[in-house]
Amino acid sequence: MRVSGPAVADIANAILARRPKPRRASFCAFRDGAGTAIDQGIALFFRGPRSFTGEDVLELQGHGGPVVMDLLLSRCLELGARLARPGEFTQRAYLNGKLDLVQAEATADLITSSTALAARLAMRSLQGVFSQRIRRLVDELIGLRTALEATLDFPEEAIDSQSNIRLRHALDALVEGAARVLSQACQGERVRDGLTVVIAGRPNVGKSSLLNALVEYDAAIVTPIPGTTRDVLRCDLQIDGLPVKLIDTAGLREALEPVEQEGVRRARGQLELADLILWVYDQPHGLDRDELAALPTSIPITLVQNKIDLGLLTHTPLMPDGTVSLRLSALTGEGLEELRRHIKSRAHIDGLGEGSFVARRRHLDALRRGLSALHAARSTLEVGLGPEVVALELLEAQHAFGEITGEFTPEDLLGRIFSSFCIGK
Length: 425
Ligand SMILES: Nc1nc2c(ncn2[C@@H]2O[C@H](COP(=O)(O)OP(=O)(O)OP(=O)(O)O)[C@@H](O)[C@H]2O)c(=O)[nH]1
Ligand SMILES: [Mg+2]
Prior knowledge:
Blueprint: E1 2-4, H1 8-16, E2 25-31, E3 37-46, E4 57-61, H2 66-78, H3 88-95, H4 101-112, H5 116-126, H6 129-153, H7 161-193, E5 195-201, H8 207-215, E6 233-239, E7 242-248, H9 258-272, E8 276-281, H10 289-293, E9 301-305, E10 324-327, H11 336-346, H12 361-383, H13 387-405, H14 411-419
Helix pairs in contact: 4-5, 6-7, 6-13, 7-12, 12-13
This protein binds guanosine-5'-triphosphate and magnesium ion (MG).
Residues 203-209, 222-224, 226-229, 250-251, 306-307, 309-310, 329-331 line the site of guanosine-5'-triphosphate.
């Protein structure tokens, strides 16, 4: 049990009948209001600001068990404590300057990470790797703005071409740096949230068989009857540390019967949400270009020819450049390894090094906004619109980057971030 706040020293006195020495483990009885022992165990007292939250913190390690915990909890509440809201310990740590926002989020990401790789990257964010990168960008921006604003204050010394060139170089370097952070953050987000892969195609081509083969159990019903799958089926999969959400859908065709019609409608809905579509086809049906043309254009599509164990003659149709085409058998497993490798390559998480970190969509949004403000500043400088406009655009970039670490973060966003934590963290 963990208690934080200004009344902690008094609560410790009352429950332990003495004040434990800060940062020392002491073995004590935990007592109720009448002085009777509820439990006994280790008490740890941290005096603020040298604690996780930055406030006085008491940690009681007892034997556990719901009734004993409840008695101890009631005693703390009696003494003036209240239950913590989700993420409140971390929120207080953030408000007291023990962590920045990126680190606070990394705490939650570490706890909920779904793969070992995600946990490692979350740990790096928690250690400040990501925050340092952002802070460096912000520092460079501030330097640039200071230089610019100096010229604003002394307009008679209008920017000469020499300092203009210097400014442009500095801006170029900043754009490059921000783009690099963004690309790493994208990888970090992939590792955290994974890839959504939707299996789609005509009925009976072996979509559900492919899902079963990839997840290595009988998740989906497979029959020789076209139109077997109607519901959208989701399975979680890991490919070398990459979390993959694999989604099986109803075969796409002009369905006559209402249940299948609904299945087809849902299947089409899933396509819009995919990071990657696996378009499965088989022989003798082959590949229908019209069906492919009806798929969302903004989402990458990989062609998967199934049932190659049947040995039927096929031709690989001519496709636009860059379309990946794989051949496999969901029945024998031939070609599955290539498909796994291909899915992983789509996440672009190869070569994640020591400088990598976990990231969230929120971070990507802010980085993109900051980067586009930097691009705007660069074109403003190029067309010679005047330093005050450039300075404004730089300030906008600084605010966007500052949102990531929590320097400029709206209250409601903070509320949303911390309320998604688990209670007691
Ligand atoms: N020979 C062979 N048969 C396969 C292969 N994959 C699937 N099948 C067979 O093809 C038939 C249809 O398989 P499903 O996996 O149900 O196909 P589906 O695309 O999910 O079909 P719907 O759910 O109706 O859209 C079944 O009889 C499978 O056994 C394969 O690689 N080789
Ligand atoms: Mg199916």
